[in-house]
């Protein structure tokens, strides 16, 4: 892989990672409201935010490890000037298609969770509790 191609891959991965971080904290407030209303009747922003942070760190570590394992399984040789066709296919799969597959799975999960349909009800219940 030429250095220009490698740089484009790194820039693309960085932008995708930053986009995921930005979106992960948006649902934290909804999770806290749902948890407060349904289960514990205790606000726990610190616990939820630390779980988000832990999940991001574990995800970044696992993502890098899985990509490395896929590339190694494809026969990537670090010192080779030209990679084999299977190594190139593994690189493309690890850095493009594996992310697309995971994004599709996460989209399905987020659609199935659908916390938005409970948001109005949660806010009404919280307002009633605060008035009482």
What features would you describe in this structure?
- This protein has helices at 3-24, 28-40, 45-73, 85-113, 119-131.
- It is mainly alpha-helical.
- Helix 2 packs across helix 3.
- It is elongated and about 70 Å long.
- The termini are far apart.
- The model has no long low-confidence stretch (mean pLDDT 77).
Question: Could you give the topology of this structure?
Answer:
Layout lengths: L2 H22 L3 H13 L4 H29 L11 H29 L5 H13 L1
Helix pairs in contact: 2-3, 2-5, 3-4
Concise account of the structure shown:
With 132 residues, this protein is an all-alpha fold. Helix content is 80%, strand content 0%. The protein is built from 5 helices and no strands.
Structural class: mainly alpha
Helix content: over 70%
Mean pLDDT: 77
Series of H and E elements:
HHHHH
Distance between the termini: 65 Å
Number of helices: 5
Q: Looking at the structure, what is the overall shape?
A: elongated
Low-confidence stretches: none
Number of strands: 0
As a whole number of angstroms, the C-alpha radius of gyration is 21 Å
Question: What is the makeup of the main sheet?
Answer: none
How much beta, percentage-wise? under 5%
Main attributes of the structure:
132 residues; elongated; 80% helix; 5 helices; mainly alpha; single chain
